[in-house]
């Protein structure tokens, strides 16, 4: 099989991936809102639409040759058995710690941290020698400090509007985040020419996008 399967992260990243894919000459040839697997306008490339957190798993197992996924997901997934050849520069934001404005850290107990990213949070606080209690949530992290579920949250911040609207402030940036192209290791060997061609096309498209902005 010489065709390539490209896994796209549904949601925010997908919206920003589509214009970049167009620069690379790839457009979905089907209804991406309903179909999970669609052919593309390039006969050798098909697309699969996946929940962001599942993209590394599909690519590691070779169910997709390549994928587009946020660095946040890759960091949380941990020790991935895949290549990450390119920062494609879309969906830029940062991973940050936030808390209620005017918040003071409790002295008599461990800090409680609410997050969708328990691994990233665990590593961050461990690196500074702080013992914390991590509370895993699946969304709307901003609510947790408002109702006393947590002292701080660890979440993605782009404009900062969501934090501000909820009376929260950014306490510290953990790292910058953007979307990455990831590649299955066996595919990189077996389909090297086709994949390298695509990586180069993405690099060119990103460079043009940066120059145009
Ligand atoms: P903002 O209000 O622009 O700071 O955006 C923050 C909200 O959007 C938070 O709920 C984040 O979890 C989410 N968010 C921001 N950037 C991203 C991204 N690149 N990928 C996924 N979620 C994001």
Automatic annotation (TrEMBL):
Residues in ATP phosphoribosyltransferase catalytic domain copies: 51-203
Gene Ontology CC terms: cytoplasm
Domain of life of the organism encoding this protein: Bacteria
The protein's annotated pathway: Amino-acid biosynthesis; L-histidine biosynthesis; L-histidine from 5-phospho-alpha-D-ribose 1-diphosphate: step 1/9
Example GO molecular function: ATP phosphoribosyltransferase activity
Annotated InterPro entries: ATP_PRibTrfase_cat (IPR013820), ATP_PRibTrfase_CS (IPR018198), ATP_PRibTrfase_HisG (IPR001348), ATP_PRibTrfase_HisG_short (IPR024893)
UniProt entry keywords in alphabetical sequence: Amino-acid biosynthesis, ATP-binding, Cytoplasm, Glycosyltransferase, Histidine biosynthesis, Nucleotide-binding, Transferase
Enzyme class: transferase
Enzyme Commission number: 2.4.2.17
Compartment(s): Cytoplasm
Gene Ontology terms describing biological process: L-histidine biosynthetic process
Reactions that this protein is recorded to catalyse: 1-(5-phospho-beta-D-ribosyl)-ATP + diphosphate = 5-phospho-alpha-D-ribose 1-diphosphate + ATP
Domain notes: Lacks the C-terminal regulatory region which is replaced by HisZ.
Similarity comment: family membership: Belongs to the ATP phosphoribosyltransferase family. Short subfamily.
The protein's role, per its UniProt record: Catalyzes the condensation of ATP and 5-phosphoribose 1-diphosphate to form N'-(5'-phosphoribosyl)-ATP (PR-ATP). Has a crucial role in the pathway because the rate of histidine biosynthesis seems to be controlled primarily by regulation of HisG enzymatic activity.
Record text on subunit structure and interactions: Heteromultimer composed of HisG and HisZ subunits.
Name of the protein: ATP phosphoribosyltransferase
Gene: hisG
